Amino acid sequence: MPQVCPIAFREIDGTISRLNALSISFFLIIFLFTHNLFLLYILAGDFLIRIYGQKKYSPFFNVSTLLKKIFHMQTEMVDAGAKRVAAQLGLLFIVLLLVSTHLEWFFVANIITLIFLSCTILEFFFSFCVACELYFILQKFR
Protein backbone atom coordinates (compact mmCIF):
# COMPACT_ATOMS: atom_id res chain seq x y z
CA MET A 1 0.00 0.00 0.00
CA PRO A 2 1.53 3.36 -0.99
CA GLN A 3 2.10 6.03 1.61
CA VAL A 4 -0.67 8.63 1.71
CA CYS A 5 -0.78 11.99 3.43
CA PRO A 6 -4.04 13.56 4.48
CA ILE A 7 -5.48 15.29 1.46
CA ALA A 8 -7.00 18.72 1.87
CA PHE A 9 -7.47 19.33 -1.87
CA ARG A 10 -5.56 22.57 -1.50
CA GLU A 11 -1.93 23.42 -1.25
CA ILE A 12 0.18 25.75 0.84
CA ASP A 13 3.72 27.06 0.48
CA GLY A 14 6.04 24.39 1.91
CA THR A 15 8.91 26.89 2.09
CA ILE A 16 6.94 28.97 4.58
CA SER A 17 6.17 25.80 6.58
CA ARG A 18 9.86 25.00 6.74
CA LEU A 19 10.68 28.53 7.88
CA ASN A 20 7.93 28.25 10.52
CA ALA A 21 9.67 25.08 11.72
CA LEU A 22 12.92 27.05 12.02
CA SER A 23 11.23 29.71 14.15
CA ILE A 24 9.58 27.09 16.34
CA SER A 25 12.95 25.34 16.74
CA PHE A 26 14.50 28.59 17.88
CA PHE A 27 11.79 29.07 20.54
CA LEU A 28 12.11 25.44 21.67
CA ILE A 29 15.87 25.72 22.10
CA ILE A 30 15.45 28.85 24.24
CA PHE A 31 12.70 27.13 26.24
CA LEU A 32 14.93 24.10 26.79
CA PHE A 33 17.44 26.29 28.62
CA THR A 34 15.08 28.72 30.37
CA HIS A 35 11.75 26.91 30.90
CA ASN A 36 10.13 30.29 30.29
CA LEU A 37 6.38 29.68 30.03
CA PHE A 38 5.89 32.90 28.05
CA LEU A 39 7.59 31.23 25.08
CA LEU A 40 5.10 28.37 25.20
CA TYR A 41 2.16 30.76 25.36
CA ILE A 42 3.48 32.58 22.28
CA LEU A 43 3.81 29.26 20.46
CA ALA A 44 0.36 28.12 21.59
CA GLY A 45 -1.21 31.37 20.43
CA ASP A 46 0.48 31.14 17.06
CA PHE A 47 -0.57 27.51 16.55
CA LEU A 48 -4.15 28.35 17.53
CA ILE A 49 -4.22 31.22 15.05
CA ARG A 50 -2.85 29.02 12.26
CA ILE A 51 -5.17 26.08 13.02
CA TYR A 52 -8.42 27.81 13.91
CA GLY A 53 -7.98 31.38 12.69
CA GLN A 54 -6.49 33.01 9.67
CA LYS A 55 -2.80 32.45 9.11
CA LYS A 56 -2.30 36.05 7.97
CA TYR A 57 -2.57 37.01 11.67
CA SER A 58 0.10 34.52 12.73
CA PRO A 59 3.37 36.19 13.80
CA PHE A 60 5.38 33.12 12.75
CA PHE A 61 3.70 33.05 9.33
CA ASN A 62 4.43 36.75 8.80
CA VAL A 63 8.09 36.41 9.85
CA SER A 64 8.47 33.36 7.59
CA THR A 65 6.91 35.22 4.67
CA LEU A 66 9.30 38.12 5.22
CA LEU A 67 12.33 35.81 5.43
CA LYS A 68 11.25 34.08 2.22
CA LYS A 69 11.12 37.44 0.43
CA ILE A 70 14.41 38.71 1.89
CA PHE A 71 16.32 35.57 0.86
CA HIS A 72 14.47 35.19 -2.48
CA MET A 73 13.48 31.62 -1.70
CA GLN A 74 11.41 29.66 -4.19
CA THR A 75 7.87 28.51 -3.55
CA GLU A 76 7.36 24.78 -3.02
CA MET A 77 3.70 23.85 -2.89
CA VAL A 78 2.67 20.97 -0.59
CA ASP A 79 -0.65 19.50 0.50
CA ALA A 80 -2.24 21.54 3.27
CA GLY A 81 -3.73 18.47 4.99
CA ALA A 82 -0.41 17.11 6.19
CA LYS A 83 0.63 20.51 7.50
CA ARG A 84 -2.68 20.87 9.35
CA VAL A 85 -2.09 17.51 11.04
CA ALA A 86 1.45 18.67 11.87
CA ALA A 87 0.11 21.89 13.40
CA GLN A 88 -2.37 19.92 15.51
CA LEU A 89 0.42 17.62 16.68
CA GLY A 90 2.53 20.69 17.46
CA LEU A 91 -0.28 22.15 19.53
CA LEU A 92 -0.55 18.86 21.43
CA PHE A 93 3.19 19.04 22.18
CA ILE A 94 2.77 22.60 23.46
CA VAL A 95 -0.14 21.64 25.72
CA LEU A 96 1.93 18.76 27.13
CA LEU A 97 4.83 21.16 27.67
CA LEU A 98 2.59 23.68 29.43
CA VAL A 99 1.15 21.03 31.75
CA SER A 100 4.51 19.44 32.58
CA THR A 101 6.17 22.82 33.18
CA HIS A 102 3.32 24.08 35.38
CA LEU A 103 3.64 20.86 37.40
CA GLU A 104 7.42 21.48 37.55
CA TRP A 105 8.14 18.16 35.85
CA PHE A 106 11.16 19.64 34.11
CA PHE A 107 12.66 16.30 33.10
CA VAL A 108 9.42 15.37 31.32
CA ALA A 109 9.26 18.85 29.75
CA ASN A 110 12.83 18.45 28.48
CA ILE A 111 12.03 15.08 26.89
CA ILE A 112 8.89 16.47 25.22
CA THR A 113 10.84 19.52 24.02
CA LEU A 114 13.58 17.33 22.52
CA ILE A 115 11.02 15.20 20.68
CA PHE A 116 9.19 18.29 19.38
CA LEU A 117 12.51 19.91 18.46
CA SER A 118 13.51 16.78 16.54
CA CYS A 119 10.29 16.99 14.52
CA THR A 120 10.83 20.66 13.65
CA ILE A 121 14.46 20.10 12.72
CA LEU A 122 13.51 17.20 10.44
CA GLU A 123 10.92 19.44 8.77
CA PHE A 124 13.30 22.36 8.32
CA PHE A 125 16.39 20.54 7.09
CA PHE A 126 14.91 17.56 5.24
CA SER A 127 11.24 18.46 4.54
CA PHE A 128 10.39 15.30 6.48
CA CYS A 129 6.92 15.61 7.97
CA VAL A 130 6.64 13.39 11.05
CA ALA A 131 2.89 14.04 11.25
CA CYS A 132 2.47 12.69 7.72
CA GLU A 133 4.29 9.51 8.70
CA LEU A 134 2.18 9.14 11.84
CA TYR A 135 -0.96 9.64 9.80
CA PHE A 136 0.13 6.83 7.47
CA ILE A 137 0.81 4.46 10.38
CA LEU A 138 -2.54 5.24 12.01
CA GLN A 139 -4.35 4.59 8.71
CA LYS A 140 -3.02 0.99 8.78
CA PHE A 141 -4.96 0.35 12.00
CA ARG A 142 -8.30 1.63 10.67
Could you please describe the fold and organization of this structure?
Helices cover 73% and strands 4% of the residues. The protein is mainly alpha-helical and 142 residues long. The chain has one domain. Strands 1-2 form a two-stranded antiparallel sheet. Helix 4 packs antiparallel against helix 5 and helix 4 packs across helix 6 (130-140). It is globular. The two termini are 14 Å apart. The model has no long low-confidence stretch (mean pLDDT 91).
Give the key terms:
6 helices, single chain, mainly alpha, 142 residues, 2 strands, globular
Distance between the termini: 14 Å
| Number of helical segments with 4 or more residues | 6
Mean pLDDT: 91
Q: Structural class of the secondary elements?
A: mainly alpha
Radius of gyration: 15 Å
Question: What count of domains describes the coordinates?
Answer: 1
Order of strands in the sheet with the most strands? 1-2
> What kind of oligomer do you see?
single chain
Q: How much beta, percentage-wise?
A: under 5%
Give start-end ranges of low-pLDDT stretches. Answer: none
Order of helices and strands: EHHHEHHH
Percent helix: over 70%
- The strand count comes to 2
Shape: globular
Report the major sheet: 2 strands, antiparallel
List the helices and strands and how they pair.
Layout lengths: L10 E3 H21 L2 H16 L6 H12 L6 E3 H23 L3 H21 L3 H11 L2
Antiparallel strand pairs: 1-2
Helix pairs in contact: 1-2, 1-3, 1-5, 2-4, 4-5, 4-6
Can I get a quick summary?
With 142 residues, the protein is mostly helical. It has helices at 14-34, 37-52, 59-70, 80-102, 106-126, 130-140; strands spanning 11-13, 77-79.
